[in-house]
Amino acid sequence: MMGYRLDRLAVLIVDDNQHMRSLVRTILESLGVSQILEARDGSHALEKMGQAQIDLLIADWNMEPMDGLELTRHLRNSPESPDQFVPVIMLSGHTERARVMQARDAGVTEFMAKPVSARSLYARIVSIIENPRPFVRTNDYFGPDRRRQMLPFEGPERRKPGGGGASGHGQAALSGDQQAALKRTKDTIKSMQKS
Amino acid sequence: MSGDKPKGAVEVIHPPNKIKARVGPAGKGMDPNLLARAEAAMAKAQEQVDFPAQANPELARAAEVVQLLLSDRENQAKHLSTLFNIVHDLRGGGGNFGYPLITRIGSMLCRYLEGRNTVGMAEVEVLRSLVDAMRAIIANKLKGDGGQVGQELCAGLERLVG
Fold first, then answer.
1. DSSP code of A150?
2. What is the pLDDT of residues A98-111, one digit of tens each?
3. How many of the other CB atoms lie within 10 Å of CB of A153?
């Protein structure tokens, strides 16, 4: 089966973790991508984009000094953006729905929850090629059309309603069941430390 | 670039599909051979990464930050944010480098911290248990699902975080 000529793409990987950059690079190389650039944070990515034409960005969220969200906002909204329309795949350990929505509102094209897999990355690249999303400009947003279902939630189930958000409780905040779980957990950890 | 429009106005733009133009019209969907090659290369690369060497110092730092939550209460918000960032990075890598339990427990911790700016003794105990559990997993090189011990540990922690 004939595939797309991915060897013609220039992809920029933006991640502060060298192992993760290396893993994504391995996947891209295996898919045939020949021009792969790396950056360690958002500012570094902008620097790289000033030096080379980039077709696709794969960016982590948490980075310093400029994170992936700020980078995406800059690309979409800044008059100094090197390419307002460049597709951005956000690859993040964040799996909470509110975070995914935040990424969407910043203007990311696709969201991918870590751990990364070759299949999920390849599928998103193909989706960007085959189903490009129109861009929308409103008073407070510029970026890919958010109405399309484009941000699959891949993480584990969120915690139960009412399970968090409280703060400053004392020891009494743990229920009897939680205290029993705490004791069992400590015992298990202790036994692991001995072994 | 998004101001100066009447309220509620929406402009839809169809930018040229530059990527499609570059990769050519010949393909359709994913090429199974290419995917298999990428999966094999990825598996090989994953084996070469010493995740414990990366995780150990980070988890030691996380344990120190948990201590600071009690000894430096005035700066709890800052310490909670630091703890979140350390663990968030680890949970991102764990699943990719043979330690899905780190991802699972790291996610519990990150969700537990969502919306919390201050914590009391009880919450610190919970956080300490989560960090200790991750340290024990790394110390014992408990890869994969961790077997019975790993599953028991996670089940207990899940009850703990509610």
1. -
2. 889 999 999 999 99
3. 13
- Percent of chain A at pLDDT > 70 equals 86
Distance from CA of B123 to the nearest CA of A (A): 7
Closest to A111 measured CA to CA, from A159, A68, A156: A68
Q: Looking at chain A, which residue has its C-alpha nearest residue B6? A: A139
Would you state the structure tokens that stand for residue A144, as one six-digit string?
């890919």
pLDDT at A168: 41
- What residues 57-76 of chain A have any CB closer than 8 A to a CB of chain B? 60, 62, 76
* Among A137, A181, A195, beta carbon nearest to B160: A181
Does A137 reside within a domain? yes
Does A18 reside within a domain?
A: yes
Which residue type sits at B33? N
Query: Is position A183 within any domain?
Result: no
Contact B20 A130 (CB under 8 A): yes
Write down the ipTM of this complex: 0.84
- Domains of chain B: residue spans and CATH: 57-161 (1.20.120)
The domain tally of chain A equals 1
Look at residue A158 in the predicted model and tell me its pLDDT: 45
Is B161 close to A163, i.e. CB distance below 8 A?
yes
Average pLDDT, chain A: 86
Contacts of B129 in chain A (CB under 8 A): 182, 185-186, 189
A184 confidence band (pLDDT: 50, 70, 90): confident
pLDDT score of B128 more than 60: yes
Lowest mean pLDDT: which of A147-161, B93-107, B122-136, B144-158? A147-161
Residues near A73 by beta carbon (within 8 Å), at least 6 away in sequence: A106, A107
Q: B114 vs A164: CB contact, 8 Å cut-off?
A: yes
- How confident is residue A175, by pLDDT bands cut at 50, 70 and 90? confident
Does A95 fall in a domain? yes
Residues B22 and B19: their CA atoms lie apart, in Å, by 5
Q: Residue A81 is part of a domain; what is its CATH number?
A: 3.40.50.2300
- Domain span at A118: 6-144
CB–CB contact A85 B15 (8 Å): yes
Q: What is the dihedral of CA A83, A85, A86, A90, to 10 degrees?
A: 120
